[in-house]
Amino acid sequence: MSRIVAGTAGGQRIAVPPNGVRPTSDRVREALFSLLEARGVLEDATVLDLYAGSGALGLEALSRGALTATLVERDPRACGFVQTNARTTGLTGALVRRASVTTFLKRPTDVVDLVFVDPPYAGTEDEVDVVLGLLVPWLSPDGLVVLERDSRTRVPAWPEGLVAEEPRVYGETTLHLGTPTG
Q1: Domain 2-180: which topology?
Q2: pLDDT of 39-53, one tens digit each?
Q3: 47 forms bridges with which residues in the sheet?
Q4: Residue 25 reports pLDDT greater than 90
Q5: Where are the beta strands (DSSP E) in the chain?
Q6: Which member of 24, 123, 137, 166 lies 3.0 to 4.6 Å from 119 by CB, making a disulfide possible if both were Cys?
Q7: What's the DSSP call for residue 8?
Q8: pLDDT tens profile 91-130
Q9: Are 155 and 167 in contact, with CB atoms under 8 Å apart?
Q10: Are 73 and 96 in contact, with CB atoms under 8 Å apart?
């Protein structure tokens, strides 16, 4: 079990699929969301949570003031967990989309303020680079991309249109942040 760390649903437990999902630890989520709140990017934000898994990141954003969160996950079982977690926490604004991330991103529909990219650590670095490239047209001018990776993997190849910030390392987890150049 995991939990929503803070906000309107703070302390509520969320269910995690038993296989194939590696939820962001409470400690890393707490540090990440403290950073996001300090930057003022959560209030009324539109959020895109890619590789949603249990939905922990998107739901945490909703709990802390985001307006909407589109949670993209290809695994039907995990999508069921995300829907159940959104319902049991009472958080509104969650929209679950069952699709592969790359397929979903090929058709930008909305401009978003905040994107969480949390692929399986076993995924290829090339896939991460492709996803980052596909995100550029989705981002608002003040948008922010947060990429979670294993600290042992290489630094992502940020595409033209995104500028990387200094990574934040939390043990075996590294958070890479990027913002639009324009």
Answers
A1: Rossmann fold (3.40.50)
A2: 999 999 999 999 999
A3: 69, 114
A4: no
A5: 2-3, 13-14, 46-50, 68-73, 94-98, 112-117, 139-150, 162-164, 168-170, 173-180
A6: 123
A7: T
A8: 999 999 999 999 999 988 889 999 999 988 676 788 999 9
A9: yes
A10: yes
Q: Which amino acid is at 163?
A: V
Helices 56-63 and 26-39: crossing angle, nearest 10°?
Answer: 40
Please give the single-letter amino acid code of residue 117: V
Question: Residue 179 carries which DSSP code?
Answer: E
Backbone angles phi, psi at 150, to 5 degrees: -65, 135
User: What span, in angstroms and rounded, lies between the C-alpha atoms of 119 and 110?
Assistant: 21
Kindly state the average pLDDT of the residues 14-41: 84
The type of residue at 100 is S
Nearest Cα residue to 147 out of 123, 106, 115, 110:
115
Question: How does DSSP classify residue 11?
Answer: T
Could you tell me the pTM of the whole model?
0.94
Domain boundaries in the chain?
A: 2-180
